[in-house]
Amino acid sequence: MRQAYETETETEHGSAEDPRSGSRIRALLAAWRGDPGIWRRGVVVAAVAVATGLLMILHAQIPNRIGNVGSLTETFLPWLGLLVPVLLVLALLRRSATALLALLVPVVVWLNLFGGLLSDKAAGGGNLTVATHNVNAGNTDVEGTAREVAASGAEIVALQELTGDAVPAYEEALAPEYRYHSVQGTVGLWSKYPMSDTRPVDIQLGWVRALRSTIATPSGDVAVYVAHLPSVRVKWNAGFTASQRDTSADALGEAIVRDPVGKVVLLGDLNGTMNDRSLNSVTSQMRSTQGAAGDGFGFSWPASFPMARIDQIMVKGVEPVSSWTLPRTASDHLPIAASVRL
Question: Which intervals of the chain are annotated as region Disordered (predicted)?
């Protein structure tokens, strides 16, 4: 009993505390203070830390001329933050004060860019809930997928990557909840409120992958766009191939800016994140519900391990209230939803 008392002391809350741990920390700090090489070691680690911070803050200056490398970087920009803990371990192993100090650069830059996404910005007062889902052309559970999306309680639902064979099944599954709907090409829109002026939107593909409709909600008319922009590919010999996607994004942006209805909601798979400069024709005039009122990053793809939010809900003349991802379905994308105030 006496021996135990000599090696442990009781805190005021009754928990055991080893006085030797404080001694070890003090000894470590003393050793670092007395080490003449503490500022000379770890220069490479420090350089990588500073370069990481500069890469994040100057991402818009990375050229797209070769392989669209700028857009590729911007698509996965938040993940550069994973370098920080790796560099921290290296700095500690090298016992380098220079590297530890340099780590402040990427930490401050990352928090400035993405720190706001870490908090829950959801509020109340929404009067319209919308949802969107790329259901995947190879989806083998159409009914289950439709049920999951309808369970969100959304008054308006958009689906992308619809196939001719699957459309009747989606129509049947969603009919009990949604009285009005329209399918144009491979995209569809379902609504609990009347729809009018529904038509395809030409996004320069040669076939229909976007539509637009005016929906008469109890709080007024809103123009709803559904779009599925072309896919992008990362190829070792061609980089980030996205020229067709970028052309379609420009066409979509032009259609939205000319829309006569003041309140606009865009739902769909844009195959790009809000950071991707190539979507500027759309993102410059609209707000992301996730960025404005979401909880976290809201990554939606791939569903097995989400790494990017390429599925978007964006608004113009409408106030975002909350935004979230829905449970996984048989698709390779997660469905997403948002509450807005008209």
Answer: 1-20
Pairing mode, strands 220-228 and 210-217:
antiparallel
Whether 320 contacts 287, CB under 8 Å: yes
According to CATH, the topology of domain 128-341 is: Deoxyribonuclease I; Chain A (3.60.10)
Beta bridge partners of 226: 211, 267
Query: pLDDT band for position 341 (50/70/90)?
Result: very high
pLDDT for 180 beyond 90: yes
Tell the residue number behind the tokens 């996984």, with chain if given: 328
- The candidate with the shortest Cα–Cα distance to 321, out of 297, 340, 294, 342, is 340
Neighbours of 322 (CB within 10 A): 22
- Pairing mode of beta strands 336-341, 128-134: antiparallel
Predicted confidence (pLDDT) per residue in 181-227, tens digit: 999 999 999 999 999 999 999 999 889 999 999 999 999 999 999 99
Residue type, 271: N
Half-sphere exposure of 140 (CA within 13 A, CB side): 0
**SS3 category, 78:** helix
Which residues pair with residue 212 across a beta bridge? Answer: 199, 225
CB 41 within 8 A of CB 96: yes
Give the domain ranges of the chain.
35-118, 128-341
The residue whose two tokens read 């700095």 is 91
Exposure b/e, 304-313, CB count within 10 A at least 16 = b: eebebbbbbb
**Residue 120's pLDDT band (cuts 50, 70, 90):** confident
* Per-residue confidence (pLDDT) for residue 238, from 0 to 100: 44
Tell me, what amino acid is at 128? L
Other C-beta atoms closer than 10 Å to the C-beta of 126 total 18
d(CA 197, CA 65): 40
**Which residues, 6 or more positions from 155, have their beta carbon under 8 angstroms from its beta carbon?**
128, 129, 130, 191, 192, 193, 217
Residues 261, 197: Cα–Cα separation, whole Å: 11
